[in-house]
UniProtKB/TrEMBL annotation:
<dbReference type="InterPro" id="IPR020845">
    <property type="entry name" value="AMP-binding_CS"/>
</dbReference>
<keyword id="KW-0276">Fatty acid metabolism</keyword>
<feature type="domain" description="AMP-dependent synthetase/ligase">
    <location>
        <begin position="61"/>
        <end position="383"/>
    </location>
</feature>
<keyword id="KW-1133">Transmembrane helix</keyword>
<dbReference type="GO" id="GO:0000166">
    <property type="term" value="F:nucleotide binding"/>
</dbReference>
<keyword id="KW-0436">Ligase</keyword>
<feature type="signal peptide">
    <location>
        <begin position="1"/>
        <end position="27"/>
    </location>
</feature>
<keyword id="KW-0472">Membrane</keyword>
<dbReference type="Pfam" id="PF13193">
    <property type="entry name" value="AMP-binding_C"/>
</dbReference>
<dbReference type="Pfam" id="PF00501">
    <property type="entry name" value="AMP-binding"/>
</dbReference>
<keyword id="KW-0812">Transmembrane</keyword>
<dbReference type="GO" id="GO:0004467">
    <property type="term" value="F:long-chain fatty acid-CoA ligase activity"/>
</dbReference>
<dbReference type="InterPro" id="IPR025110">
    <property type="entry name" value="AMP-bd_C"/>
</dbReference>
<dbReference type="InterPro" id="IPR042099">
    <property type="entry name" value="ANL_N_sf"/>
</dbReference>
<keyword id="KW-0445">Lipid transport</keyword>
<dbReference type="GO" id="GO:0005789">
    <property type="term" value="C:endoplasmic reticulum membrane"/>
</dbReference>
<keyword id="KW-1003">Cell membrane</keyword>
């Protein structure tokens, strides 16, 4: 018997060894699939349980289980789970009394990264009110547009952003939007102080009946994403989506004992859903920063015993560009979770800062399909496995970049891309993987739906992204299609930038696109413009328009002057050739200009400037 047992054990070890050789990621695949199945089972349970168990309930359980545990650490001050719970009760009661908020009323948050963001959102959740998370960089027309999307009638703003609100205050008042500022007093008519009312409110728990009708399919958040309309689109984030996004930390092996470092803006899904919501789901401690600082990053990690960091591609690059120090590997960071890091930067980051497990993601706020690279494979954004594909069906289809449309066969169906071939990622829309769309924008919602993909009558979500699956089942991001490009971790809508440029008294038309810059992630803004008859290019006026109306990341750094813009047969502006030609004055005969912040104007683009950019002597 013992001989048989020994033989069986030996065969088992041999099989596992052979399997490990033939499939080196077998162990990681199994661990990830098991985690995913467990998390999927939890989500099914939350869908069925009554009353509905939300992420707020998860927070309340954590506050009861360990009220003294630090939830948020911010600028030298610690806020425990119990304290944040009580503050959110006060926020809810103050808004209930003064703003007459009730279940289902949307409220817009115009706040930076600070603890009040967290307890204000929790307070709204206790009232059953969805929150619209506004990008604090937006101004004027874009800011007003955000209210028409989500229907919010209340705006909560931080004192630092009061000037931006005052610019549009008359229009907000016309629309009946009540504005509250998080300060004890405010002398501006039409802006109500809120902090004084919060401090006087009771911190006693609120009745669950106030959110009795909230379900897993109810709207929890509106998160704004740039699109081809040129104005922000409000992606509808349901409670189901909040849960799914919060599970990403657990899927990466993060536990309640970890310490999570958030320096990405919380108006984004990365900072709020993956970061803050994920921390609540885990019951962990968060180190919250107003913004990313490369010089302070590792000192913070050492000071606060950070074990999990969040990143975008630019974050990694900035850290790699800091001066080298002897203690670079002296930290406790074990996992980095994020997206958009270049392969060379990824490798350099690991060489300099140690064995950190980089968990690169691919996802979209409004999308129904995402990937995660749970292995140590550098460069991949995810990995295909049968469980994932069964529950969230997706495929890659061939895409005509010039015509910006899928390739279809004689039957009118899309053609699947072969392994190793770049294709457009689409996710099948089902009850299990829904696409809710954009609030107040049925046209843009419909544009993201793709019909008759693999069979007549089916419907898929069009991600607008080109990916590639390799022979080892890894997923690689290739590029974006359409009218949006990404720079400094932000999506830039080309038509919004074009609208601003044509406000300049000399510009007739503008074709905006993103171009590659050596050594930088994403694409930087460039515009090819035509001038009004009899007008010369007014450098200072063009500069004034883009600086006054666009955030820094959206401002076109290069402008090219042409006598006319090339159009397609359907009168769309052609961009492919312009993108390929870039901004090298040695290869372009048209007049070229460069946005120079120091001179506060556009200046003629020279080969010397081009060389300085390539040598990274000019900061972009």
């Amino acid at each position: 018997m013992s001989i048989c047992l020994t033989v069986l054990v030996g065969l088992a070890i041999l099989c596992l060894s052979l399997l490990g050789t033939l499939s080196p990621y077998f162990g990681e695949d199994c661990a990830y699939i098991l985690r995913s199945v467990r998390l999927g089972a939890r989500l099914v349970k939350y869908k069925r349980v009554k009353p509905f168990y939300s992420l707020l309930d998860r927070f309340l359980d954590a506050a009861r289980a360990h009220p003294a545990k630090t939830f948020v650490h911010f600028e030298g001050r610690e806020y425990s789970y119990g304290e944040v719970d009580k503050r959110s009760n006060q926020v809810a009661r103050a808004l209930q009394a003064d703003a007459r908020l009730k279940e289902g009323d949307a409220v817009a948050l115009f706040l930076g990264n600070e603890p009040c963001f967290v307890w204000t959102w929790l307070g709204l959740a206790k009232l059953g009110c969805p929150a619209a998370l506004l990008n604090f960089n937006i101004r004027s027309k874009s800011l007003l547009h955000c209210f028409s999307c989500c229907g919010a009638k209340v705006l909560i703003v931080s004192p630092e952003l009061q000037d931006a609100v005052e610019e549009v205050l008359p229009m907000l008042r016309e629309q009946g939007i009540a504005v509250y500022i998080l300060s004890d007093s405010c002398g501006v008519q039409g802006i109500n102080s809120l902090s004084d009312k919060i401090s006087r409110a009771s911190d006693e728990p609120l009745s669950r009946d106030l959110r009795a009708n909230v379900t897993i399919r109810s709207t929890a958040l509106y998160i704004y994403t740039s699109g081809t309309t040129g104005l922000p689109k409000a992606a509808v984030v349901t409670h189901e989506r909040v849960w799914a996004a919060s599970f990403l930390q657990a899927a990466c092996g993060i536990t309640a004992d970890d310490v999570f470092y958030i320096n990405l803006p919380m108006y984004h899904s990365a900072g709020f859903l993956i970061g803050m919501a994920g921390a609540i789901e885990r019951g962990m401690t968060v180190i919250l920063k107003r913004k990313f600082s490369a010089s302070q990053f590792w000192d913070d990690c050492r000071k606060y015993n950070v074990t999990v960091m969040q990143y975008i591609g630019e974050t990694m690059r900035y850290l790699c560009n800091t001066p080298k120090k002897d203690n670079e590997k002296d930290h406790k960071v074990r996992i980095a979770i994020g997206n958009g890091v270049r392969t060379d930067i990824w490798s350099e980051f690991l060489d300099r800062f140690g064995d950190i497990k980089v968990r690169e993601l691919y996802a979209a706020t409004e999308g129904n399909i995402g990937f995660i690279n749970y292995t140590s494979k550098i460069g991949a954004v995810g990995r295909i496995n049968f469980v994932h594909r069964f529950f969230f069906p997706y495929t890659l289809i061939k895409f005509n970049i010039e015509r910006e449309e899928p390739v279809r066969n004689s039957e009118g169906l899309c053609v699947e891309a072969a392994t190793g071939e770049t294709g457009l990622l689409v996710g099948r829309i089902t009850q299990r993987s829904p696409f809710v769309g954009y609030a107040g924008n049925t046209q843009q919602t419909e544009k993201k739906r793709l019909y008759d993909v693999l069979k007549k009558g089916d419907m898929y979500f069009n991600t607008g992204d080109l990916l590639r699956f390799d022979h080892e089942n890894f997923v690689y991001f290739q590029d974006r299609v359409g009218d949006t490009f990404r720079w400094k971790g932000e999506n830039v809508a080309t038509s919004e930038v074009a609208d601003i440029l044509t406000m300049s008294r000399c510009i007739l038309e503008a074709n905006v696109y993103g171009v590659k810059v050596q050594g930088h992630e994403g694409r930087i803004g460039m515009a090819t413009v035509t001038l009004k008859e009899g007008k010369d290019f007014d450098c200072s006026d063009a500069y004034k328009q883009v600086v006054n109306y666009l955030p820094a990341y959206a401002r076109p750094r290069f402008i090219r002057i042409q006598p006319c813009l090339e159009l397609t047969g359907t009168f769309k502006m052609k961009k492919v050739k312009l993108v390929e030609e870039g901004f090298n004055p040695a290869h372009i005969g048209d007049p070229l200009y460069f946005l120079d912040p120091e001179k506060k104007s556009y200046i003629p683009m020279t080969e010397e400037i081009y060389g300085a950019i390539a040598a990274r002597e000019i900061k972009l």
